[in-house]
Every structure is written in structure tokens, then in C-alpha cells.
Amino acid sequence: xxxxxxxxxxxxxxxxxxxxxxEEHKVVIxxxxxxxxxxxxxxxxxxxxxxxxxxxxxxxxxxxxxHAKNGRSTKSFIEEGRWQTVIDIVKPxxxxxxxxxxxxxxxxxxxxxxxxxxxxxxxxxxxxxxxAKKAFPVLLTPVVRRRFNDRGExxxxxxxxxxxxxxxxxxxxxxxxxxxRLSEILIRSYxxxxxxxxxxxxxxxxxxxxxxxxxxxxxxxxxxxKLMAEIIAREIxxxxxxxxxxxxLEE
Length: 251
Fold this sequence. Notes:
alpha/beta, Rossmann fold, five-stranded parallel beta sheet
């Protein structure tokens, strides 16, 4: 009888080591944002969200949970209950990466549009709620769109929204990544023509999902998403915070 109990105990310990204990030692990163970050359906490939590529630059004990959703702003993400779904499962020590702006600025889309004042308040809410769970918020400015004028000069489309993120990050002393500025540097370095490679640009007849071709200057190709994720990883490592230890840039 004692021998039987002994082996039951051993098996229980093995089970715990194989499940609960290993899970406890994982670093968890939650991603909340819009389509530039979100995971894509198979019928949208090769379109890729940069959030899908972040794991490539993190060590094996990091788990990335991507809750970003196409077409969402801070307003709709909250109103649809998506933020509550995330914050309900966030645990102490987790990280929550927050990146919105593309849809918040869309005045023509009533369900998405968020005034600059409300946008700032929504970001404050995300930070406050995350900290209440003893987790770490990370604010990111929106990644830039690919835009060049007739003279081949890059220009931005986000107006005051990136500056609001910068202001809130400073005001609340939040971990901050200026993805807007860094992605602009990358796109400028590629130039007007070559930067198409970073985005969803396909000629007619080249892909079954886009038989008529596509010229999308907002959403990324697989390589573009990978490079946008690498920007995030490099910046996190440079910040020299606890999460920096889990960045893997060996690729």
C-alpha cells in the first residue's frame, strides 16, 4: 500500500513539473491593438501582423498572446469587451503591449473614431487597469503607413495621435516604444519603390487570395511584419528592463 502511494506521489510531481510549474515560469506578453499587429486568416495571406512575428525574437520561455483585432480602435476594443477579456486573465508580472491609432483617427468611421482627448483617456485606462493587476503596460505609438507624395517624399498620416501616446507614456512613466518613429526610419531607408516589399503589394495572378493583385500600404508582407517585430525587440532590449533579458536577437 505504501509503495502504491509512493508511486502516486511521484506521478503527481512529474505531472506538476510537466504542466503547472513550467507554465508558471513563462513570461507572458499580451498584445492588444489593430490589424497591423493582429494574426491573419489563411485567406488573407501573405498579409501578416507584426505581432505574429514577435515570438521569433523572444526566448523559448516567453509566451506571446495576440489579442489584437482588425479594424479596432481604443474605443471599439473597449466597447466590444475585448479589453475586459484580456485584463481578466492578465497575471502579476505579465506584460501588456498596447498599440492603437490607425482606426482611432478615422473620422469617417463612427464606430471606430476616437477623439484625441478620449484616445488619451483610453490609454490611461489601459495603463491603470494593467498596473492594478500588478502587470507591466508597454505603450507603442502606431506604426506608420507607407505614404510618398508625387516628389517621392515620405509623409505621415497619423496627425497628433502618436504625440498623445508619447505624452501619456511620459506622464505615467510607462515603458514606451516609439514604433511610429522607428518604422518611419525603416521605410525611409528602403525608399519609395523598395519599401513596397514590406507591405502587401502583389501583382495580378501572383497569389490565389488576390487574383486581381493588391496594393496595400498599411498591412505588412511576411518580411515586413518580421522587420517591424524586430524593431520592437531591439528597442525592448535597449531599454534595459527586466523583459530585456528575454529578447533573442540571434537570428
